[in-house]
Structure formats: C-alpha cells, structure tokens
Amino acid sequence: MPAYQLYVYEEQEKREALEQRISEQVDACTEVNGTIRNRVKKFLIEAGITDISEMNAVLRVRYEGYLERNETVHVPITCLRGFDRIFIHRMKEELKTLAGQRKYTTEYRDQWMCLTHYPEIEIAESFLASKDGKELLWDFTLGCPRNLKMQIFTVLKAVIHTYEGETRKEKLLALRRFYQFCVNHQVTDIETMTLSEEQQFEQELAEEFKGRKKRTVFGILRTSRKILFIQASEIHWQANVWFLERFHFSKERMNPSKPIELVSFKEVTNLENQKILQKYLRYLFGITDLCISTIRIKLLELRTFLVHFNGEKKPIYEMEAEKIQKYLEGIRNQNTREATANGRIFMILQFYNFLVVKRYLKKIPFRHEYYLQKEVRVHNDRSVPEGVYTEILSKLAEFPEHLRLMFLHLWCTGIRGSEVCTLTGDGYEEKDGDYWLKVYQVKMKTYKRIPIPEALYKLVQVYKKKYQIGPEEYLFQNQTGGAFRYGTFRYQMLKYCEKYQIADGEYLFKSHDYRHNLATLYYDSGISLQAVRDYLGHEYEEMTRQYVDYMPKKLEKASEAYFQEETHSFAAELMKGEFHG
Q1: Cα angle at 509 between 407 and 457, to 5 degrees?
Q2: Would you say the pTM of this structure is higher than 0.90?
C-alpha cells in the first residue's frame, strides 16, 4: 500500500477510534436523552475534543454559539443543559481521584466559570433548573484589576451558598450587572468605592430595572461590601463602610432591639479626613467602653462636621481656625435646644482632643467655652391622658397577643420600650408572695430588679408555656429568634391604635410616654423623688425631674390640705385681703 494511502487509512482509524471513545463517554450519561447526546457528540468531535474531561466553560460558550447557528435547534437551553449534565457526570468520576480534587477547586482562577460546573456537585446540579441560564456564565478573564475580580468571585460564592431558587438568581444577575459597572468604570476596590461612584451606579440602573429586581440590584453593592468586610481574614480598616457584626462587641454595648448594622464613612469625600475619622472610630470601638449607639451618635455628628469641609483640599487638622470657628458659631445660632447644641460642640471638642493626642495638631484652634450656651431646662408634659390608656386597655383584646403583653409591661412597669423588647424568660421571679422583674438597662449597662403586679407575672407564665420560651430566650422574638425590633413594635402599635380609633384615631403611640406616666403616678402618690429615681434607674435626680409631670392632682391635694386648716379657709384668706387693703 502506498505511503499516502497508508497515512489516510491510519488517520481514518484514529478518527473512528476518537469518535468511538467520545461516543462511549457521552453515552455513559444516560440521564440525557439520545437526541441531545448525539448533538453533543457531533459538536465535541467537530471541535477536536479527544476526551470529555476537556469540557469546560469556554467550550460551553462555543457550544452555545454552535447551537445558535444551527437552525434545527429550537430550544438551545435544553441542549446546554444536556452538555452540563454530561460535564457533571464526568466531574463526579474525576472527583474520586486526588488529581480530580486538585482540578476542581473553589479557589479563584483567571478563567471563565459556569455555575453548572461548580466543583460542589449538589450546587452544580441545583443550577440545572435554571430556565434561561442567564446567571450561569462568568468571565474572569476581563481586563480589570485582579483584586476586583477576586472580590466579585468572593461575593459570587457567598451568594451561591446563602440563597436558593429565584432569590439566588436575582442576586446573581444583580452581581453580574454590578461587575459590568465596575469593569466599565475602572473600579479597583469595591470596599473603597466613592460616594460619586455609588451614585453613578444607581443612576445608570434607575431606568434599567423596576420593582423587586431594582431593589435587588441597588442592594447588591451593600451586600458585596458586607460579605467582603465580614469574610476578610483581617479587618479591612480602610473600607469606607464597616459592618459591626465583624467586631463581636460584648452584649453590654449593644441594644439587640435597636441593632446598628453598619457605620459609613463614604460621605466624607476628603480622603485624608475620611482616614482620620476611621482612626477616631477605631479608638472609640477599641479603647472606650461606650455603647455602640452612643458611638454612632458621635460618628454622625463628626461626619456632618467633616462633610461641611468636603470642598476643601486641606485636611481638617490644617484647616484655618476661622473656618472652624465659623462652623461652631453656626451651631450656636441654630434654632435647637441649648443642651443639644452644647452636646454637638463637646463631640467636636473630643475629636480635636484626639487629634492633639495623635499629634496631628499642637493645640485646639478654638475656645469651646465661647460657643457654649446656658442650658434652660424645659419640662415637657409627656404623660398619657387617663382617657387614652383606659381606651387602649378596653380594646386591648383586639390587639395581637404579643402586643397586648408588651403594652401591659409598658403600662405596669414604665420600663423603656427597647427594654420590653429584650426581656428574657428567666427575668421573672416570685419570692415570698412578691413578684419581680429583672431588666437589663443598655444605657446604664447594668441590671435592675423592679416589683411587678401578680397579674402581669401570671400572664407571662402562661405566655412562656404556650410558646415554649426558654430561660435564656427572648420573651418577644423576631422571625429569627432574636430580640423583637423596637421599630417593629412601635410601627405595629401605631397601626392598631389607628385601626381601633384610639382617641378618634388621633393618638400617636410613644412608648417612652408611659415611663413618664409611672414616674408621675408614683411621685403624685407621695413617693420621694429619690425612690422614683432608683426605680427608673437614673443616675441623677435632675433626669428624674424631667420625667415627673406636674399634674393637677398633686396641686389639688396640696390645696385641699391647706384650706382644711381653719386659719387657711377661703373666707379667712378673703378677710386677710381686706385687712391689708
């Protein structure tokens, strides 16, 4: 046989052997019907594939193009799903070997990625249910910083493992849209994205998405920041949004009924000022034992202060004293309470003390005493009128069970609304015929024990038994078993007070008013101010005085006692007036 014919014959044999091998490997996946398998075989052979272990995301992209060019294929996604099932079948076999385990890894790589090829079989198979497959392909070969691609990959994995079904798909599509924005606008780090970049992202999407999808796409930036900040091996102090879950603060510093999820620095566009503010907050978190809610108030005030100087090129420690003084003068001249304005000035003073200690400044560029105002204590009568709370009690049976019991705690004990939300199953005690409640005061960072009515105690016991509330569990719980959110409590009370037309629908529920109610009731009954102070858990009597509302009852009693004396009769007083002309 001539050499040429021999060569052709050998090539034909190789081709037939190759086709036979591919055919056998593909046919081993019996989950895919014969027609789909034959189409995959034909493509693999034409593509020069020698073994189905060579199948990957890039080849899948080529196959999708191949299907689109083939007019006889009416449902390309069905054929793609067959391709993916064959890939998964092969991956299962390879994962049984050490080489296969090294090949299929969840570590980041600069390559295309298909989620139906995800190295965890259960997750890969879950994506086979995708109706259109739009969320499946991810291109990590794009020309953008590797750090950005690794961040997107980290978020991608977190979304895959956290969500399911349609919610997962929406978040993945939102992440891909966000990835596209970052590539187009040369974003190098998601955690340090500027406020202007964030606003530009939202502006681009304003017309593109609507309804729930719009909310999901807008929320993907926050989701991405949170995942990157919490999952980092070390705390990313340079991030312009910090998520407090990462810090594991002691429960004494947190109020679970009013959780603070994050603090943001991105509003301060002068990067040096932003960096200094981050250092100051890091000091407050780590060195002081202040409540997180107090620290957040300080942050908001200082952020407002620094935002005022966003247009300046100089950092705050180089700012002209006249500009700082002008800002403080503005605080003094605002139409706010003297105590509020003074508090704001003290917060700025504390920040400047920090700058001096850290040697950004040699001395503070203003005399804070000049801007302080004399505080005039104004008493606000906040007690709830008897007719209002009586009406609520008469209609309380119509309220949901948890609201009934929460309201009774407010009305009977005068504890704070947030304290009601964080009561636990072991907080109730009966001793020698008396009934007690243990309450944790977040503001004071300490517990207190107060007497409660027997009826309230018994109602709680019934409630605990009915809902199987354990000793350390919250009495009133949110959907995840955590403390009931104070905002939810207030919203629900407002809704039901309006529904049942409390005070003709005009009553605005405020939980703190019932604290004033009880303080006033006790004081009006002859209990000393010091005893009321101890009951409320105040440090100073001045604060307690603000809670005691000067109701007419006490004045009436004093007047009645005065005029009961013969020398103080009304007639005698009139005669005194005549005698003195």
Answers
A1: 10
A2: no
